[in-house]
Amino acid sequence: MLEHDSNSDLRAYVVWVPKVGAREPDVDAATRLVADRRALHYWDEEGLLLRSYRPALGITKDAWDVYMVYGPAARWEGEAPPQPEYWMHQLNVKNAPELDGKQLLSKISSIESK
Question: Number of folded domains in the chain?
């Protein structure tokens, strides 16, 4: 996805979590899936973000396999994460669209141009 947007200000924060058997030693190989210098990778051993994003996204299940878009003014202040301007998922929930790479890239571009 990142290869389709050359904006040097764009950042991707990729959080790897212990789902479907994933473990911290798996992260090194997994980072190659998002091998862009603008991507920062993190391991969330306890799944803290999985739970903390539930209210922001309006879901009751763990927030994993989610793709969130924030504008440049977004800040995480306080305990709860900020609500994204836009998000997609692969969770089988109804309150956001399922992942569509072209649509996500279009939304990223529209937010960048604001």
Answer: 1
Question: Does pTM top 0.90 for this prediction?
Answer: no
The b/e string for 63-78 (b: 16+ C-beta within 10 A; e otherwise) is bbebbbbbeeeeeeee
**Could you please report the per-residue DSSP string of 2-60?**
GGG---TT--EEEEE-S-TT--GGGHHHHGGGG--TTEEEEE-TT-HHHHHHHHHHT-S
Please name the helix (run of DSSP H) or strand (run of DSSP E) that holds residue 102, with its range, or none.
Answer: helix 101-112
Instruction: Give me the helices (H) in 64-100, please.
Output: none
Q: Which domain holds residue 8?
A: 2-112
**Overall residue count recorded for the chain in this entry:** 114
pLDDT by position in tens, the chain (length 114): 677 778 788 899 999 999 888 899 888 998 998 988 999 999 999 999 999 999 999 999 999 999 999 998 999 999 999 999 999 999 999 999 999 999 999 999 888 776
